Amino acid sequence: MTEQKQTQPFGAAQLDALRRTMEEYRRARREDMARLEEQEQWWRLRNTDRQAQTYALAADGGHHSASAWLHNVIVSKHADAMDAYPIPHILPREEDDAAEAARLCEILPRVLEMNSFEQVFSDVTWQKLKTGTGIYRVTWDARKLGGLGDIAITRIPPTALLWQPGICDIQKSAVLFHVESVPRAEFAAAYPAHADLPAEADGTVTVTEAYYRKEVEGRRTLQYCRFARDVILCATENDPELCRRGLYDHGKYPFVFDPLFPLEGSPCGYGYIDLCRGPQTELDLLKTAFVRNALVGAMPRYFARGEGVNEEELLDLTRPLVHVSNASEDALRPIVHNPLPAAYIDLYDRTVKELRETSGNTEAGTGNISQGVTAASAINALREASGKGSRDSNASARRAFCGVVELCIELIRQFYTLPRRFRLDGGEGEVPRFVRYSADGIRPIPQTDGEGRALGYRLPVFDIHIKARHRDSYSAATQNALATELFRLGFFDPARRREALAALSVMDFEGKELIAARLGAEDGGEVRP
Asked: Could you report how far apart the first and last alpha carbons of the chain are, in Å?
C-alpha cells in the first residue's frame, strides 16, 4: 500500500468498521430475508409442476390442483394501481417561485418518461403486492446522455438492502447498505485495475454500496463508499470536494420505501402472499381432494378373484370380450365409491369467500355487479365501497411517489448546471414545444435589505401535489354523464356564471377546476372559450 493510500481519510480501518456494521445488520434481517425468499419461492413454485413439493399430499405422486384465487387478487390490485398512475403537480410556496414551479410541472413528466417510469412503477407495485414493500432508488447517473448525466430511477428488491435494526424510517438508519451481484465481465470493464478480483460461484462479483452521514465543517453530509470484498472502489471521503459537500446536497439516502401493510419496527410491510397464503393453500388442498374423488368415481374399480377374471382383458377397453373361468357373482364385485358430502363443497366456498373478503377482492371490486343493479350511481357506490383497500394502497403509493419527485427536484437543483432540452407535448391538435431548462431559477437566491446589505440566501421550496391519472373506463363514462348533466342544468350558460361558480365551490369531482376556469372569474371577467 502506498503512503498516499495510507493517509487517505477512508482506508482499510474504516472499511473494516463498515463491514462489521453490515454483518450486524445482516444478522438482524435474517428472519426477514428468509420470509421474503420464501414468499417469492412460493409464488414461483405454485404455478409449476414443482408446486406439489410444497403440499402435504405430494407424497403419493398424484394430481395436485393450483387454483388462481390469490393470483387474481394480486393481478386485480395491480390493475387498480395502474389505473391510478400518479402525475406530479408542483406548487410554489412563494409568489416569486410560481414561474419555476410551472416549468417543473412541464419537465418532470419528461424526466420520468425518459426513465420509463411507468414500467418502474409497475415493477415496484408487483413487488409491493407480493412481498409487502416496494422500493424506488433515485440517483444521479453520470454515464447518461453521453457523459452529461441525468437522473436514474430504478426498482430495488428488499433483499438487496441492509439497514439499522428497529427503525421505521429508512432515513434514520446510521448506515444503509445496497448489495448487488455484478457480472464478472461488467465489473472488469468498470474497474480494470481490479479485474483479477475473485468471483462468486455463479460468476458474479458482489459489490456493496454504503451510504452514511458525517459532520463536515458544521454541516451534516451524505457520504458514500463502494467496495468489493476488501477493495475500496471509490469513497467520497477520499475526494476533497465530495468530502466537504457530500454525495448529494439533499443529504438523504436515495431510496424511497412504499410498504403495503406496515410492520412496527421496520420500514417494510407484509403483502398479500403473507395475508392470503393460508386460505389459498387450503383451497388447493380441498380442490385436489375434490378432483381425486371425482376421478375415483369416474373410473370404475372392482374386486376380482385372481382365478375368476382375466384382468388384462377387463382393463383393456378396446376388447369386446372378457374371459372368465368362474361367472359367479362374487368373482367380480364393484368397489363402492362414496362421493364427498355437500359440507365439503360448502367449506370450499366459505374459504373462497374468506380469501376474497380478507383481500378486499370482492365481486363488485372486480366488476361483477349483482343482477338487478343497473343505476350508474348504485354501481359506482358498490365499486367505491369495495375498493377501499385499493384506494388505501394507492394513497400510500402516491406518498412514496411524492418522495421520488422530491429527490428528483433536488437532483435537478444540484446537477442541471447546463441547459437541457425537453419536448413538451401539447393538447390534441397542438404542435409540441421544445424548451430549454437549467436549475438557475431554483438554486439559492441571495437576499438583501433596502440598503443593499446581504441577508443570506433564500432557497426556493415547492409543495408537491400528486394527482391520479384515472384510466378506468367506467369512471370515464361517469365523468361524461356528469358533464352532460351539468350542461343540461345550465352550468355553461354565461348568463348564469355566478350561480354556476357558487355551486361548483361546494362540489367535488375530477375536472372541477377546468370547468371553473372556463367559466371565468367570479368578478365578471370574460368567459374563456
From this structure: 75
C-alpha span between 69 and 47 (Å, rounded): 12
Q: How far apart are CA 118 and CA 116, in angstroms?
A: 6
DSSP 419: -
Q: What is the CA radius of gyration of the chain?
A: 32
Asked if 92 and 404 count as a contact pair (C-beta separation under 8 A), the reply is no
pLDDT tens-digit series, residues 315-348: 776 777 677 776 666 666 777 778 888 898 899 9
- In this structure, what C-alpha cell is assigned to residue 233? 472502489
- In angstroms, rounded to a whole number, what is the distance separating the alpha carbons of residues 426 and 106? 10
Cα distances (Å, whole numbers) of residue 4 to 12, 134, 192, 240, 401: 13, 42, 20, 14, 44
**What pairing do the DSSP bridges indicate for beta strands 175-183 and 261-262?**
unpaired
Distances (CA, A) of 399 to 123, 170, 334, 467, 468: 17, 15, 66, 11, 12
Domain boundaries, the chain: 302-336, 472-529
CA separation, residue 151 to residues 87, 239, 254, 437 (Å):
18, 22, 11, 15
The three-class DSSP label of residue 290 is: helix
* Alpha carbon distance 301, 309 (integer Å): 13
The model carries a pTM of: 0.81
pLDDT, tens only, 7-66: 688 999 999 999 999 999 999 999 999 999 888 888 876 656 555 444 444 444 466 777
252 HSE (CA, 13 A, CB side) = 19
| DSSP structure string for 329-395 | GGGEEEPPP-PPPHHHHHHHHHHHHHHHHHHT--TTTTT-PPTT---HHHHHHHHHHHTHHHHHHHH
Q: Other C-beta atoms within 10 Å of 7: how many?
A: 8
Distances (CA, A) of 156 to 53, 113, 120, 174, 178: 29, 19, 10, 20, 9
